[in-house]
Amino acid sequence: METNYSRPPKVSVMMCVYNGQAHIAEAVASILAQSFADLELIVVDDGSTDDTAVILQTITDPRLHVFSQSHLGIPQARNHALAQAGGEYLAVLDADDTAVPSRLEQQIAFLDAQPHIVVVGSAYLQEDHLRGRTIRVTPPTDDGAIRQAMLRGNPFCHSTVMMRRTAVNQSGPYAEDFPYVQDYELWTRLALTGQMANLPDFLVTRHYHQHSVSNSWRKEGLRLWLFMRANSRAIRRLGYPWYHQLRVLLALRFIPLDLYATLRSSRLHANKP
Question: What is the pTM of this model?
Answer without folding.
Answer: 0.85
